[in-house]
């Protein structure tokens, strides 16, 4: 049974309940008394989970020390019980798997019978001990009446966001430019018919970026230009009636004598507000919206009149911002961090009163503080206010404050308000997302987190079984939904996105990471250290350990530390030190990264990690030695090995027996063992080298029918003649025709051109493909089967010849957003992009011999925003000219041109740049032009 949802506030209770259910329902031949004790444990833990959820839902200040102490005991107890249950299950499974068949097996089973009975009696005693501990915890809860404290009233905290409403605009930095930009967007078209409709502008961004400040700056700037104005705050737990009453009051609605508006229900308030605003030009700011439902109710009160009314909403959540902007004339604005220059201005003005008032001895520490603030206005304002309040400008005090930014906010209570602002993002999350958010603390500061890595680790620990996506059968889809939710809520900041705007990697802002680590310490969720000595003497058990190690490490420093209960281990940094894996017992996740050093990493001692589900090793150079009996890691779901060229990696032959393995990623130049076709569970296979793998393995690819992600690499270290290559390609074609679940296929094989046509004649195309990259295969022309790929949004093709019929095939792909064509041959005639087809294309990238052989008709590629071109300057004198009809690309915003100047006259390169710049310059939309010539580079064509 897959683990149930895990919440950081419950420890391992969620997954533990699932395992206890397995023990009761499974064929573990438990003693009757042991079954009764498991039922007791299950019932008690269910009750504890309900209370812990109630505690987690309450505001942080509402829980007293007694409640937090009791919750900590329950969390530790749940981890210990899960460890015991895992040990029992593994013992039973190892016993059953180790017994041979036949007469020898009969003798051995008979000899082991007494041992098995003793094992079950021992487990029974362990369960009795755990039962006593659970009873003690429950009795303590009743004795100290812990339940009654959870509902006690708390004092109302001051909302420091009010400060943003009354900030002096003269002292603000980085506000004027976005303020004026958004005012221009808001008032654009005033006096023209269509834009007189109600327009909503939604400002979205991370907590502390200054959304309220920006909205307030616009509100003040436009004061008096509308008949009615109102600025209302919504917050996490909105009182809709109070908000509507506030809007009516600020807009100027006069209540009749003897009328008690306090008694009006929502419907009456909405009707009154609609009637009052119906014939007026109004401007309303609705600040800090946390869900789309709240907006839909408030939005009902805002009539869509034709008087040029405007509304600004602010939110941290992208999906809410999108819901607010439901019409084509609405606008969504994403807040940006302050630049380095803006950060310095804001900081120095607030501390010293001027931008050049910083004394020389504080310049270095000031720069480090600003680096920690990372362009977050709230952080800069909070810290500069704290520094300005110091009686003396002592460098030592500043360094203390700098150091506190990486540990506890509590060191300086003035920073507590900043944490409370950021903490709103945490407290508003459902339980399952809180756990996923805190797991981000496993990564070092400024680390670029790959989405696939993160969601696979969440799955390996059972974090992803939330009720909100219970209808989705694929656990990985659930985990990706969790990731997208963290992006939508501005918990993480996107770094890389694909052509379909799907976020592929992210970072955590330093201030948010500080909050996460504060919570991790409080919940004993993750222990992150950069000095191994800090691990020694920890009072509580380490559940998840993150090591960021630099320099020379004494390998004995962890000898006295209890590590058997660690569930996840991640080590980063340039040190070559790795903790001894023999010390770990209950590890589910192991990540080892050596980014710069030459290492020999011996992992042969990891076969006892029976619970391991995720293993990733990144080594710049060196050797990775895996255990020969890797099949013992029966739970392994992800195996990822990344190295540079010429590193030594050998995949064990018995890897084909890992029935749970879903994702296998290996470096290029690796030969996989035979019989890979038995790995039926595989969904991802990357690094499959055609030149290094056997013909049988290429044939066996066709048996991996669950594959969704397949990357076939170039021939490496082994040259193939035409006959051998043609044979391989035909076998590969038969295999690809069987892979009906593929979503991504990448071929970077660089095979002889005569062999590539095997791919052009697939009889059954993988119709679910969303991304297809065949740049390395020089196809003679665009394959016919490509027109069947109705889900394809990203296509990269290398073709020897592009004709109008090939363009017509690609033009039928109505989901296509990105197209990269590499035309290796010399065009025989001009290719024309017609005004039909390519309806969704936004990015067209083409590498060809001469730009003059591509023409665009009126209406061609109506949504194209970016055109990227590559060609050689050599031969420009004879064939050079700009694209024909580039002015017909009506949506064009940017043209990027890269010219290969190798072997060309300098005059040819200059002429090419001049002609293209002139052609782009007369485009009616004035797109940005980025034209570069590299005199040492040349694109490859068929001659």
Automatic annotation (TrEMBL):
Annotated ranges, domain NB-ARC: 197-355
Family: Belongs to the disease resistance NB-LRR family.
GO molecular function terms listed in the Swiss-Prot or TrEMBL record: ADP binding
Pfam families for this protein: LRR_14, NB-ARC, Rx_N, WHD_DRP
Domain Disease resistance R13L4/SHOC-2-like LRR residue range list: 565-928
Organism (species): Aegilops tauschii subsp. strangulata (Goatgrass)
Signal peptide segment: none
Domain of life: Eukaryota
A GO BP annotation: plant-type hypersensitive response
Protein's name according to its UniProt entry: Disease resistance protein RPM1
InterPro entries per the UniProt record, alphabetical: Apaf_helical, Disease_R_plants, LRR_dom_sf, LRR_R13L4/SHOC2-like, NB-ARC, P-loop_NTPase, RX-like_CC, Rx_N
Sequence ranges assigned to domain Disease resistance protein winged helix in this UniProt record: 442-516
Keywords linked to the UniProt accession: Coiled coil, Leucine-rich repeat, Nucleotide-binding, Plant defense, Repeat
Disease resistance N-terminal domain segment(s): 12-100
PANTHER family: DISEASE RESISTANCE PROTEIN RP, OS08G0205100 PROTEIN
């Amino acid at each position: 049974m897959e683990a149930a949802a895990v919440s950081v506030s419950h420890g391992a209770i969620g997954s533990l309940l699932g395992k206890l259910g397995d023990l009761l329902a499974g064929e573990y031949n438990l003693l009757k008394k042991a079954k009764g004790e498991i039922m007791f444990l299950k019932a008690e833990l269910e009750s504890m989970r309900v209370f812990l959820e109630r505690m987690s839902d309450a505001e942080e200040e509402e829980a007293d020390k007694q409640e937090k102490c009791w919750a900590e005991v329950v969390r530790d107890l749940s981890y210990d019980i899960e460890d015991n249950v895992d040990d029992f299950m593994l013992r039973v499974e190892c016993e059953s798997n180790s017994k041979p068949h036949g007469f020898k097996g009969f003798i051995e089973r008979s000899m082991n019978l007494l041992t098995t009975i003793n094992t079950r009696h021992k487990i029974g005693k362990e369960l009795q001990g755990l039962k006593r501990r659970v009873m003690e915890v429950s009795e303590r809860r009743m004795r100290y009446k812990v339940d009654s404290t959870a509902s006690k009233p708390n004092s109302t905290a001051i909302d420091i966001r009010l400060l943003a409403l009354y900030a002096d605009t003269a002292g603000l930095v980085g506000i004027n430019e976005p303020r004026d930009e958004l005012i221009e967007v808001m008032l654009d078209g005033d006096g023209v018919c269509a834009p007189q409709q109600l327009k909503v502008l939604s400002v979205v961004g991370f907590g502390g970026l200054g959304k309220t400040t920006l909205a307030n700056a616009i509100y003040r700037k436009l004061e008096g230009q509308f008949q009615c104005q109102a600025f209302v705050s919504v917050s996490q737990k909105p009182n809709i009636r109070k908000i509507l009453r506030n809007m009516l009051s600020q807009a100027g609605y006069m209540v009749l004598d003897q009328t008690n508006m306090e008694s009006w229900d929502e419907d009456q308030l909405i009707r009154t507000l609609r009637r009052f605003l119906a014939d007026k030009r109004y401007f309303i700011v609705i600040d800090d919206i946390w869900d789309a439902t709240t907006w839909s109710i408030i939005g009902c009160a805002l009539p869509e009149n034709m008087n040029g009314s405007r509304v600004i909403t602010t939110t941290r959540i992208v999906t809410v911002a999108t819901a607010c902007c439901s019409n084509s004339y609405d606008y969504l604005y994403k807040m940006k961090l302050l630049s380095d220059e803006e950060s310095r201005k804001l900081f120095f003005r607030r501390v010293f009163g001027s931008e050049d008032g910083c004394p020389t001895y504080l310049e270095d520490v000031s720069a480090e503080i600003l680096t920690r603030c990372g362009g977050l206005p709230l952080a800069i304002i909070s810290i500069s206010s704290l520094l300005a309040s110091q009686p003396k400008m002592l460098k030592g005090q500043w360094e203390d404050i700098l150091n506190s930014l990486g540990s506890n906010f509590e060191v300086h209570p003035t920073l507590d308000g900043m944490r409370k602002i950021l903490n709103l993002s945490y407290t508003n999350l459902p339980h399952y997302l809180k756990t996923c958010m805190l797991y981000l603390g496993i990564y070092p500061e400024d680390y670029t987190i790959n989405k696939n890595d993160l969601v696979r680790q969440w799955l390996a620990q059972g974090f992803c079984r939330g009720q909100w996506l219970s209808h989705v059968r694929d656990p990985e889809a659930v985990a990706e939904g969790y990731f997208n939710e963290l992006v939508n809520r501005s918990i993480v900041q996107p770094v890389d996105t694909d052509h379909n705007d799907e976020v592929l990697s992210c970072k955590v802002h330093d201030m948010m990471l500080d909050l996460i680590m504060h919570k991790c310490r409080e919940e004993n969720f993750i222990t992150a250290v950069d000095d191994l000595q800090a691990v020694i003497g920890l009072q509580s058990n380490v559940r998840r350990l993150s090591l960021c190690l630099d320099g020379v490490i004494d390998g004995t420093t962890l000898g006295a530390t209890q590590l058997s209960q660690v569930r996840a281990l991640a080590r980063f940094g340039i040190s070559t030190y790795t903790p001894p894996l023999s010390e770990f017992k209950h590890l589910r996740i192991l990540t080892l990264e050596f980014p710069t050093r030459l290492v020999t990493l011996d992992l042969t001692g990891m076969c006892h990690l029976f619970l391991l589900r995720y293993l990733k090793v990144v080594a710049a150079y060196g050797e990775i030695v895996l255990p020969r009996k890797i099949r013992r890691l029966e739970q392994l779901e992800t195996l990822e090995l990344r190295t540079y060229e010429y590193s030594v990696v050998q995949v064990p032959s018995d890897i084909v027996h890992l029935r749970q393995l879903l994702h296998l990623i290996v470096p290029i130049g690796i030969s996989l063992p035979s019989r890979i076709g038995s790995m039926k569970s595989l969904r991802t296979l990357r690094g499959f080298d055609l030149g290094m793998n056997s013909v049988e393995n290429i044939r066996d690819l066709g048996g991996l029918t669950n594959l969704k992600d397949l990357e076939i690499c170039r021939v490496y270290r082994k040259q193939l003649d035409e006959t051998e290559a043609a044979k391989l390609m035909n076998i590969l074609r038969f295999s690809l025709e069987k892979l009906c679940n593929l979503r991504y296929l990448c071929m970077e094989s660089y095979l002889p051109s005569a062999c590539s046509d095997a791919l052009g004649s697939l009889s059954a195309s993988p119709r679910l493909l969303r991304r297809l990259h065949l740049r390395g295969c020089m196809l003679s022309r665009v394959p016919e089967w490509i027109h069947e790929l109705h889900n394809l949004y990203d296509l990269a093709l290398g073709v020897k010849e592009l004709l109008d019929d090939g363009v017509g095939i690609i033009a039928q792909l109505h989901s296509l957003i990105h197209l990269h064509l590499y035309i290796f041959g010399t065009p025989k005639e001009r290719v024309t992009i017609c005004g039909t087809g390519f309806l969704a294309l936004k990015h067209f990238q083409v590498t060809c011999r001469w730009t003059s052989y591509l023409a665009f008709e009126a209406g061609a590629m109506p949504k194209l925003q970016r055109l990227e071109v590559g060609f050689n300057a050599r031969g420009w004198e004879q064939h050079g000219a700009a694209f024909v009809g580039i002015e017909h690309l009506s949506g064009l915003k940017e043209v990027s041109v890269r010219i290969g100047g190798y072997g060309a006259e300098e005059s040819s390169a200059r002429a090419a740049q001049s002609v293209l710049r002139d052609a782009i310059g007369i485009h009616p939309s004035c797109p940005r032009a980025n034209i570069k010539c590299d005199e040492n580079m040349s694109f490859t064509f068929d001659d």
